[in-house]
Amino acid sequence: MIPQGISQAKDGSVVLDTTAMINNLPIRYRVSAPAAMFKAASGVPGAAAAPDATSPMGMNVLLHGDGGASFVAYPNQGVQNNLMGVTVLAPDPNLFWGGGQGLKRTMGVQHAQAVNDLVQKEMPKMVAFNMSNVYFTGVSGGSLMMSGFFIPAQMKNFPNTGVLLMCGALAPQVPFQDMKNVITSTTIHYQSTTNELANLQMSIPQAVSAYEAMAKSAGMTPEQIGKMQTIDNTPQGGHCEFDSKGFNSGIQLVQNSYKNIMQPGATGQVTGIQTNVLKTVVGNEKPTFGKAPRRLL
Fold first, then answer.
1. Which of 169, 161, 162 lies closest to 233, judged by CA?
2. What CATH number does the domain containing 274 carry?
3. Could you list the residue range(s) of the whole structural domain that residue 245 is in?
4. 210-259, pLDDT tens digit by residue?
5. CA-to-CA distance for 210 and 21, rounded, in angstroms?
6. Exposed end of the chain (fewer CB within 10 Å): N or C?
7. In angstroms, rounded to a whole number, what is the distance separating the alpha carbons of residues 106 and 250?
8. Are the beta carbons of 115 and 63 closer than 8 angstroms?
9. Could you tell me the pTM of the whole model?
10. Could you give the C-alpha distances from 218 to 101, 164, 182, 213, 295, in angstroms and in order?
11. Is position 296 within any domain?
12. How many other β-carbons are positioned within 10 Å of the β-carbon of residue 154?
């Protein structure tokens, strides 16, 4: 990929890598789309969309883990099942989404607002997409920011879609906005491994219980909750090693089956994971973990 330039994704679509100043934060992002879907402001050769145009295509917006490896690897590049692949770089010296460290994300509010404003205000200037079909993916530290800050504060702006939380989750850290509508319309899937990091073995169940409790308070039945909130940690491996081999390859394995996990008609089948991953959180609030590696997130 060409930094601050134009490249080609694996599927042949165009990748725009650029930076926008949003709320005084430099937000670098990559978006994959057919050339014709881009607008003139993007500078993409072949851009043909009108300045105010939209399109049927949605987006899958991925927030990387601490250090930015998944921004570099770009596992959701290309257009997958009508979703443009978008990845965003954390505006933090350590490349931590939400800033801070570990489970304490001191800039979570500001970073969540920046991601919202990137999608709502900046990206429509660059590419034509369907604002009503924007999904999100968190990886490790990106999942902490998504579940701790973005879902409770900003997901009200993205109804009837979903969030995939890979190898990490936090209970909401800020007041929940429009909780009933968000909880009843947002699909949330927690994907982890048996040998997750020790602090995440604590925080993931806390997040699961918190979000399930909100669903109950919103009047959802156990059956309804099970369709919207699901969990799996059956892969044998360490942090994000969903293929039992490595961090980046594990994330790629799950991302390859995104539609089977998150989108309407999802089957729960992930190539490389033997069991159906869409297990209801009801009764599975405390997944069984094995021995954790010594390091913490």
1. 169
2. 3.40.50.1820
3. 6-280
4. 999 999 999 999 999 999 999 999 999 999 999 999 999 999 999 999 99
5. 34
6. N
7. 28
8. yes
9. 0.97
10. 32, 21, 10, 9, 37
11. no
12. 23
